[in-house]
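User: We ran a pulldown and think these components assemble together. Before we commit to crystallization trials, I'd like a predicted model of the whole complex to look at. Sequences follow.
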Amino acid sequence: MKKLLIAIFTLSSSTLLAQTKFAQLDQLLPTANSYRAASGAPGHAYYQQKADYKMTLVLDDAKQRLDGVETITYTNNSPDPLAYLWLQLDQNIYDQNADSKVIEIEKMENFKSVADLRKRDFYYDGGFKIERITNMSGQPMKYFINKTMMRIDLAKPLLPGQSISFQIKWWYNINDRMQVGGRSGYEYFETDQNYLYTIAQFFPRMCVYNDVTGWQNKQFLGRGEFTLPFGDYEVSITVPADHVVAATGECQNYASVLTAEQRKRYELAKKSDSPVIIVTQAEAEAAEKDKASKTKTWVYKATNVRDFAFASSRKFIWDAQKQTVGNKDILCMSYYPKEGNPLWERYSTKLVAHTIKTYSKYTINYPYPVAISVHSKWIGMEYPMICFNGGRPEADGTYTEGEKYGMWGVIIHEVGHNFFPMIINSDERQWTWMDEGLNTFVQYLTEQEWERDYPSRRGPAYMIADYMRGDVSGISPIMTNSESIQQFGNNAYGKPATALNILRETIMGRELFDYAFKTYCERWAFKHPTPADFFRTMEDASAVDLDWFWRGWFYSTDHVDIAVTDVKWFQLNTQNPELEKAFLQSKDTQKDVHIGVTRNQTAIGQTVNERDPQIDDFYGKRNIYAVDALDLKTYESFVAKTSAEDLAYLNAGKELYELTFENLGGLVMPLIIEATFADGSTKLTRIPAEIWRIEELKVSKVFVFDQPVVSFRLDPFLETADTDLDNNTWPRSLQPTRYQLYKQEQTRENPMQRQQRLEQMQRGN
Amino acid sequence: MRKVLFLLLVIGSSFSQSWAHEFYFAYAELAYNEMNQKFEGTLIFTTHDLEKALEPKGSLIGKLEQSDESSPIRAQLEKYINQHLHISYGCALDSNSFDAVCQTQFILEGISPSLNGTIECYISAPAKLLYLPAYLKLNYSTILNVKFDALFESFSGQQNKLTLIYRNQKETLNFIPGKEMQKIPLKP
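Assistant: Here's a predicted model for the assembly, 953 residues in total across the polymer chains.
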């Protein structure tokens, strides 16, 4: 039905609801100051502390114990005198009385087996044993251990610009990672009776002191990881002579720990664009059997890193290749036991090289000389230049396709952590999303450049919809402290990664986003950014007000569910009686006709008024669709008063649609509307989220087209994480459920069954 | 009250904290097919989490990704689904009685592992008398008691969501340890 368009030139009186979704973030963000500028950049008075370490380590393979003596030189670059220093004692999380064990919520139904109870009560003598803390004159220093934190009281305050050196002697029993769990520890291989050590968080480490938290000495409860000051490391690691060591930094003495043949291979690898084996599987297998009783010491140096980790085992196979980033050649390396093959030899080092190359493009050039992936069953954990990654084939060397992608994903993710938070050094203890979320986002970009249509688990908007929809009682805002997050993975990894992907693809566009994101990375490389620095930089570098986005996606648990709730169709009234009356007549003839009327056309030969011309009077004879002189005169008058441009527009056959959109989920998002026309062509309209800036729950928009629309679809490219696609279409069209799609499939064969059938057929031929 | 703890003698099952994936989320999309009087739907799990949950209950049951319909792991999976996804509701076996309880028994119709590490399990279960005939004109609305605690026993951080689709309505509920059961009053 044609509706007359009556232009009423009244300004719509906006319903001035309290502004919430578009309220600026000023009240939520810390006030900018000389340390952190309102632009999101480091302020002119920005400072950070420095912690340099010299360590001598001895790994006792017989007792699975690590002994260390470390000398820390701590430089106070802050404007504040420091009366004491705080250090992190992460190993104390394995203390029998550690808070992390006590604070776990338990129910009886959690313990369904003896194994469950044994796990709960499992005890080993973990935690740091601090033997002494002395100044450089050998005098004891006063200290106090508060669970996972240790305070060293200074004889006199450390003044701005001053440094202090002191020495700590410690040891601890290394945790059996297979029994106790954890980010580091050892794995015992029963078949050849050897150990593989992945050692991290193994020494008392300086806490961060800065303008945001003062001392960041929040206890380590197991989830919120670390924040550490940058510094230089010199570390010597004594291990069994047949062990191969991988560590943060560059080895200073390969000449004394590798064979001549291995050194030759190493030199070859430094120039190679594909992996070169430095320690072969045969050499590793021989070492597994021989078990050297002597020791060797590997010496490492690392500059401007926030931490140090290493791995050691006689089981290690080692390969390496170079990857050029900017004008530097980075040595990419992998260390793995034979149990990691064939996956590891084939993929690990290539993945390392691809990851640092791709991340460098989106962030900053990888600044370190090496990047290392170590195979460590089950886990994925990151440290500067080195990470420990799962992805182990079956004992017979076979693996599923899913396991292959799992291994690829974890290596890309953990190597990617070199950038977040190892270089762009956010506070993990406080904000998990700042490293895991940003890293997962760049992981997605990296995966897509590794293989076209890589089946990434996180990144595309639609993949977060199941988690975000409906009942939000189990969801925390992204801006939640690391220890209090519900659904750690979806919340701290998936949702922020999705949010950034939406910013890049939909809100800002790739060019603006990439520039702003890179600006953030460049500004905060080798510094300590906060969420506000990120939020502000993204706006500062793009001229896009994203406060509504941060507020909705990072500070709330709202989800996206925008519905097309009404569509009205209009055409312009040309005022031309010949056109308009003909139009009305055609509409009249198109009206539905009752069946009796149709049948009477033939059943009644002639009606009375058809037989008797005297019956029809003026009303009976008039043709309401006939154009008369009065109509024409009125139209002539209208034409005389109307400009040629307006007349042309009126007669252009425009089709007008008023669409109503309702915000059911709470999160405001851009409206992306695809109109499909009768000829099959489509037109996409993108409306920024600011359409919701006054009316946050219901808005309408008029669309003008040159031909009639047969359907509208909201978010046709699944880019807003809309949780209900059924209300996105007009006319309403329900999306098939996953079950319905499954039932429509023609085959129930899995790919392997099909391959077997193919092979059988080929054998038959 | 003292409760008896039934100790299942399964010793030596591996346990570890994994810092790599942090998924711990399962999702169920369940639609009521009124024509067939069945619940039909899909459960989505992280594949290796699901395999781990199935593992202690049998030995060497294999990989879901490599299984076919006759593999023991499929039967194990169907049993597991019925233990951890459960719907019951008051139903009338005749027009004068509302005190009967109908319960779902899901059939695993198939699975589809995805390369991104998730697996979709397609299930259906007869569910008769969910709606009473309108001509009875009874002021009675069916309340579904839904339990969805899959993987809770394996991962303390596990959280599940279930979207129920019926008569053009959609409701999504959240299930966490301690809140394994939820009620859904069906709208007419």
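The first helix of chain B runs from residue 47 to 54. That may be worth checking against your pulldown data before setting up trials.

User: Thanks, that helps.
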